[in-house]
Design brief:
single chain; mainly beta; Methylamine Dehydrogenase, Chain H; four-stranded antiparallel β-sheet; 33 strands; 36% strand
Amino acid sequence: MSKRSATEDLDNTTHTSVKTDNDSVPTTNGSEEKDIDMGEFEDPYGDEFESDGEIIEIDTDGEGEDEDDMDEEAMQKKIEELERQDQETEAQNSIYLPHKSKPLGPDEVLEADPSVYEMLHNVNLPWPCLTLDILPDNLGNERRTYPASVYITTATQAAKAKDNELITMKLSSLSKTLVKDEEDDEDDEDEDDEQNDPIMDSETIPLKSTTNRIRTSPHAVETGEYLTALMSESGEVLIYDLKSQYTAFDTPGYMIPKNAKRPVHTIRNHGNVEGYGLDWSPLIKTGSLLTGDCTGRIHLTNRTSTNWVTDKTPFYASDASIEDIQWSTGENTVFATAGCDGYVRIWDTRSKKHKPAISVVASQSDVNVISWCDKLSYLLASGHDDGTWGVWDLRNFNGQSQPSPVAHYDFHKSPVTSISFNPLDESIIAVSSQDNTVTLWDLAVEADDEEIANQRKEAQELYDIPPQLLFVHWQRDVKDVRWHKQIPGCLVSTGGDGLNIWKTISV
């Protein structure tokens, strides 16, 4: 990301530096001689200030001065002025690093570098959204061609409770990011301009309160039911079937039935206590949902052939709020929770005592989010309120000693708001933070890689950057980020200014 003044948006003029090094002066424009024969040891710049009648164009006002009339002090001042201008230009186009860059000024904005994005689109929404999820579709897996299409569901955080909505949308004609070369001819530019604009189709369902977290069943395509659960601020957990909304996007003239805008089931076991923990089992296709609230209570809801059944006895370990829940990707009775007491706990639904099997101190601050790796079921990532995050090997969770994370980073200096393993690559992790950034990490990168070491030596501002850091994406007030399981490398993130659908050249 590059930082620059917002006022520069109005100026598309390309600026180039006049001064090239500390000993050089602005070049002359009046000379027509290009090749001059010189002696073998003759200094090619030795007579630059001694030739009679030579004009030095150094004033920006277009006024030239004969070098004999310009004293050394005036020349030095002019050179210092040019150096200062170069430094300001460099500062305006510097790399934004959340852990050490100063906050943006009132007249500054961050502009994405299009050359590092394969795809980047923004979607404005009527209200900010705290959470989102990606709907599985039947367009195929491993999709790498453009234009792309994605199906998304999210819910709003409106100023008034009655104005909240559940929004389901289809975004199509998502084109590849174009990087225009300044030397491209007009024909190429005209051809690029003919590219179709993205298309958004949406369906809404009115809600009575803010949604803290939303999750869609990963088995939607297989079962034909797009079961979507909403953990609301009121304490209720609403379960909708968004199959009709999904069908309407691809079936012209299709009318959504009225009952499709009502929840198929409502979980009220949490009373009026809100929560953030919510997850569908990736292994139980019939529908198995875990919900956790701010009093530390966790309820398991299973779907039977006729209805939904929620266990009356909650899983419980302490009064600390359950901030996140993740089902195991390898065992259908195991799940993990993240708590405000700094613990990551491993549970088994077969436990009659409804107590955790293992409890591990993951942070001295709140554990805000966790992510269970799809590819390697023994890896679990956790993001913390102090900005740190780590990856744990569950094979070290033996209950007898305090394990250490296999990876730990403190790059972010603000609370981590979301963390997610790439479902198609176990070494790639996306982390969002309240510092307005989403970072991508590759844990497979070795710290002693020779190429990385050389890059860090050449770029002074990168000397303290972890070599595993792949990419920094800026988004104001970013809250949640999700990988698209069918489009490799594609992410969708939500923040105060809407949704970002993006894919970098790094992943």
